[in-house]
Amino acid sequence: MSDHEQVFADLGESISWEQLEITLFSRTVPTPRLTAWMGDAAYAYSGVVNQPQPWPRQLAALRDRVSAECGVAFNSCLANLYRDGSDSMGYHSDDEPELGPLPTIASVSLGARRTFALRHRASRARWTWPLGEGDLLVMSGESQSDYAHAVPKTAKPVGPRMNLTFRRFDS
To answer: Contact at 8 Å (CB) between 34 and 79?
Structure first.
């Protein structure tokens, strides 16, 4: 088993995954993936309030490695578990005020490769990358103000993918 496969297995067991509900167009539906939030305080987006969980030891160690690599003292993580191709996340930006005007977000993808899509807000130009198997994607500068990103559904058979998005919240 590779290092990233072992981390995937360990975190899959040590994180308390939840499927929260969101309200879209006056309809309440389950989120199209499982999530967990680790941080100092609750984190709210799209009407969903994520209560913080304790940092699993291996996730805290990974946070420290990613912080050193990026030069940012990350203090929170939104973990996402896409169980199969029907789990997804639509186009959005991580632009909550608590992240500051030009946040750096480090995204570690473990497990099966899934398409990560990026779309420029003004020109609508699009790019895609197959992320997984331990890939690190860092979004900084105007990435959240000028672009939206997504993990679209796929009809292709695909295994589970875990995405760990490390963030710095300033209180």
So the answer is: no
